[in-house]
Amino acid sequence: MRNVRLNREFLVVFILTGILVFAAFLFVPQNCRAETALTNAHQDEFSEYDEKVEGSLDDPLEIFNRAIFTFNDRLHRWVVEPTARGYRKVTPSMFRTGLLNFFNNLLEPTRIINLLLQGRFKAAEETFLRFLLNTTAGVGGLMDPAGFDGMKSHERQFASTLATYGCGRGFYLVLPFFGPNDLRGTCGLAGDTLTSPLFYTLSHDPLAAVGVQASNAINRTSFQLGEYEKMLSGAIDPYVAVRDAYRQHQQKLLGR
User: Fold this and answer.
1) What pLDDT was estimated at residue 126?
2) What is the pairing mode between strands 179-182 and 172-175?
3) Number of domains in the chain
């Protein structure tokens, strides 16, 4: 009986995701193709004067990506950020910081595994000690005593591990809720998920997992209010601005 209930919950989540993706296409302006064509034509007109940007992203699914980008953009502006603003007003800073530290600490096992796979043994040892200290002295990760001791956090994901072993990033891909990514990063999400303690804690209750992730997103956004709008202010094409920002972030993250 329990398996039947879980199957129904998975089906509900799957259907809702499908509806949201379909709704994203409805949000795309009708002149999206025309704007894209005009932009490309304008770029081609002056292409002889431009140098090819090293590490540029292939974007063969641009029409689809723009649809998902529009959905994510409006979700952020209309739901996530207003909710985060209200949440910030009524929630003490100490509580929000503790929650941020807690979720960050839960990512340390994933970082340790990836550092080991990449042969960064000293960084893996430091990350393990950081995780141990914050989980014990930091009361389950709510506090960050390791940070006060100068122990750095090494941001490593399975996407960077795949890159270490020569896997190309593939084409650009915008994911619902997750935002800008590429094919390599999308595959890396599977590895990150399977090494997350939350996956095993909440795998029996998908709806609870969605609620926890949503709460984490709202709390994290409460520390970043206005940054998204600031990044896009003055951008002629917000989609291109976000795509370029993602490319630059990946180059910095991977040291390339």
Assistant:
1) 93
2) antiparallel
3) 1
